[in-house]
Amino acid sequence: xATLLSTEGQRAGWRDYLELTKPKVVVLMLITSLVGMFLAxxxxxxxxxxxxxxxxxxxxxxxxxxVNHVVDRRIDALMARTHKRPLAQGRVAPLPALLFALLLAxxxxxxxxxxTNTLTAWLTLAxxxxxxVLYTGYLKRATxxxxxxxxxxxxxxxxxxxxxxxxxVSAEPLLLVLIIFAWTPPHFWALAIHRKHEYEKxxxxxxxxxxxxxxxxxxILLYTLILLAVSLLPYAIHMSGPLYLACALVLGLRFLHWxxxxxxxxRPHAAINTFKYSIGYLFALFIALLVDHYLLLNL
Length: 299
Prior knowledge:
This protein has 15 helices and two strands. By secondary structure, the chain is mainly alpha-helical. The chain folds into two domains: 1-167, Tetracycline Repressor, domain 2, CATH 1.10.357.140; 170-299. Strand 1 and strand 2 (11-12) form a beta hairpin.
């Protein structure tokens, strides 16, 4: 792939541009999008929608991630977790990065319009703008509730996958969005506690910085309780069966255990362990939904 010049005259390779798209985050989003697609139908998903629908969603998600890198390049340079990012180190300049984001967004929208439907394309665009403009550009620096309000944009992928297949919005995909929406605060606040001093140094008003670790740990515990309750709703509305119910209870109670450990403050690395568990939790919960769905079809 061709390379572009950075502000320091260095050559930015394709790996730098790939890193700007936050591929690991996009992969987790695509897993939830795939689950949304397969849950939306009992007849199987057309290969064109499966392939190009997820490609379009991935391209738009990558575009939003690139904008996040551009806007946060100053604070990224101050934080140990992010100081090696391409823009923070000057390997990629802001203008080429923004042009790259625009190219990804236009390509993603074109793919979605061509292979899925208009509603999917517009919902994906709304999610992109919600994350790149509302959260990154404003909320992140404006309020300690930034991740709660902005989390809705990151919760959209299962809805996008569902709509790509069905062409309409219904209660089931909105419930999937609600699960991720409730999951986001305990997931991200656990990391924020672990990285509190870095956010403080970067002058970002994350909840542990503005209200303290104990207050944040309490809210992580409360949101985890909400998440446990919300995660049981697919069974309550007959969207899933006993297998999912058992998995949701086991996974949710384990998450609650970590939230309680974090609140009590009895283990030195509870915050980062809670964060790590939360990633596996979401992956396992959505896989359980998918397995349960196809198990029910075969009964």
